[in-house]
Design a protein that fits this description.
Layout: H1 2-27, H2 42-47, E1 97-103, E2 107-113, E3 121-126, E4 129-134, E5 140-146, E6 152-157, E7 163-168, E8 176-183, E9 190-195, E10 205-206, H3 214-218, E11 224-229, E12 235-242, E13 251-260, E14 269-277, E15 283-291, E16 301-304, E17 311-313
Antiparallel strand pairs: 1-2, 2-5, 3-4, 3-6, 6-7, 8-12, 8-14, 9-10, 9-13, 11-12, 13-16, 13-17, 14-15
Length: 316
Amino acid sequence: MTRRMTIRLASVALALAAVAGAWWQGTNPRSGGAAALPPMTGAALHLAAPAPEHAPVIAARLPDLPPLPARFGTDVPAATPSLPDEVSRYGLPCGLVVGAAPEPPAMVRLTVADPCNADAAIRVEHAGLSFTLRTDLMGRAEALLPVLTDPAAIRLTLPGGATREIAADAPDLADYDRAAVTWSGASGVELHARERGAVRGGAGHVRPAAPGSPGAAMRGEGGFLTALGTQGAAQTLVYTFPRDTLPGEGGVVRLSVEVPVDAGNCGTAVEAGTVATTRDGDLAQSRVAFTLPGCAEAGQVMVLQNLFGDLRIAAN
């Protein structure tokens, strides 16, 4: 291989020398004028010879491409993210979510969320109680419900008629007595409890204007009143009293339903229901219907005293 390459290089050198000499002779003034160039030799042709037969060949295959659309520039719709079938005006998915968590004293914190039912009335029912929750602009509502059974079964009805049921435990219910009144409309029904012979307006007279507190009941100091519902719709008042825990002398708690007569309810018919726990774990329920005095009696108070039995306070 080395010898063949040397011979070829020598041939190339001789050919170049011949060409150069001919050019010098044709252009030198002393040569007697221009002379024709000699014909090209085989060595000169060898310089333009093609590449060796065994030179490497690189082959590549382009990937297959999808066919072009019939018309260049055809519009292709942009991909859009999938969204829930129904969303609220704030972009939140529709659907009712209900929570029920027990809290002392024998209560359940009820939470409701439905973004597509903003400012809506939701009816809540439990063990004879009935009241209306109204959701806010985000579809949320909350209530602290004094329950009457353990476990407590709660039913919710939405404006469209759909219902949802939920349950929660009330492990400390046996430590308390409860009485409630429920009604609809703007009749202004009130529940009053006079503990241990309390006089009207005095200490121990639990009423909407002086409802007491859950903390006092948990300490065994007295009862409290819980108001549930929306004015003009279904409403409920629940009185809770600590059972066998009030210190001092024994006595009774006298319960009554009262309705102040005013220009808004005078002469109207009222239907109400009452429900109370008993010492054997049952519920005592009743319905009552009556008509309020005429508007000439506005400012008076109608008192119904026989709807509940007295709650007995044990002496300690």
